[in-house]
Amino acid sequence: MINRSMIQASVTMGQLQNKLDLIGNNLSNTNTTGYKSRQADFSSLLYQQIDNLDDPEVQKGRQTPAGIRLGSGAKLAHTNLDLSQGSLQNTGRELDVALLRENDLIKIQAEGENGLETQYTRSGNFYLSPLNNGEMMLTTAEGRPVLGADENPITLAGDMDGLSVREDGALLVTRGDQQNVEGQLGITRAVRPRMLEAAGGNRFQLPENVQAQGILENVSQQDTQVQSQTLEASNVDVSKEMTDMLMAQRAYQFNARSISTSDQMMGLVNQLR
User: Fold this and answer.
1) Which backbone phi and psi does 171 adopt, to 5 degrees?
2) What is the per-residue pLDDT for 208?
3) Mean of pLDDT values over 71-80
4) β-strand 170-175 against 162-165: which pairing, if any?
5) 139, 119 Cβ separation under 8 angstroms
6) Cβ atoms 248, 19 nearer than 8 A
7) Which pTM was predicted?
8) Are strands 155-157 and 135-139 parallel, antiparallel or unpaired?
9) How distant, in Å, are the alpha carbons of 74, 90, 131, 164 from that of 127?
10) d(CA 251, CA 253)
11) Centroid of chain to Cα 41
12) Quick check: 148 and 184 in contact, CB under 8 A?
């Protein structure tokens, strides 16, 4: 029984460490543009029923079950992605864009295990990167191409006098006295955001060998809602994260003490003559 309690505590401590790592990652991205926090959910591991010997005299008037239910600890079942909108911060910069719908994501092109693939982000601080043919490509802060509604990287002729983003995601390019739409941001909506995996760098991706149907759906230009000259701040609730960290640390200490207590009890048993 003592060995079981030590195993149970050690298993739970390992999973609590994963939760502390997740909380630390959230706190470290408090100031990251468009960052979406993740929350940990736990589930119990296998329970075992240890029954007592049947005794008619003991069973008389008994109100509790005959036996002991002994668990094997807890595990981190899954992490929930929180796509709730962070606060909007005005920057006055034309290429800073914030999505106004909670589950909307911007399509970008990134390097995956099997080459270039489509990934998704809420971070809208864009830049123009010059190409060898004299054109300019719209990229993320990391230099990754931003995809348009046609799933291709957005490129613009370099001889422009101004560039702005309309509320429907259209790119308005000014050349002299003319202003024309020369691109459209590719926006998708996460119908089942829990299915998305973190790809690093504040990006999300579909799990391997999983189709986008039923998880993501394209957003038409009429349904697109963006705000230019604005960035979305991280949605991390610092006070909640600190509370969760204290609770996880206390649970970790409790399980560590149970191992220490079990070790002391085993020492006392070994000393019996």
Assistant:
1) -95, 115
2) 85
3) 73
4) antiparallel
5) no
6) yes
7) 0.76
8) antiparallel
9) 45, 17, 13, 12
10) 5
11) 13
12) yes
